[in-house]
Specification:
176 residues, alpha+beta, Multidrug-efflux Transporter 1 Regulator Bmrr, Chain A, ten-stranded antiparallel sheet, 10 strands, 16% helix, disordered N terminus
Length: 176
Amino acid sequence: MSFGLCAGLTSMTAQQPRITHRAEQPYAAIKGVVTMRTISAIADRLPEVFGWLGARGVEPAGAPFFRYNRIDMESTLEIEVGVPVPTPVTGQGDVFAGVLPAGRYAVLAHTGHPSDLLGVTSRLLDSATAEGLAWDVRESPDGDLWGCRLECYLTNPAEQPDMAKWEMELAFRLVD
């Protein structure tokens, strides 16, 4: 299982946001609607994705990720937990196949506990906004709808159980 890349994005040593262009990336995932308090319920289903891929003889092509499709911090979040794959896959059941969109992304690396990501996310959003970059997001009565907002986990928890040392990467799509 590869945890070194997040769908083609390279891990950064500097903790400064950067802009990158990325191609479409096929992936397999499970989708769920959760609250901030129950977000671990969707994360706990990642082994189902790996099992689904294993049953088809497909190796992941990158690091596991959360994809935030709809965010209403006061209510619910629509999230996918998935993994990039080398070529499109098909199947049935809770696991589904999709394609992450091509385009420009603002990217920020972080090493630390996942609970720090709220502050890291604010830093990325503030930095890109200060640069005049527009997010691929639109507001709706049900929350913010994101074109592609990824939280990638570059560290394999089996190899590094200390969550304070985990490497993560945020990648948010920008308007073309």
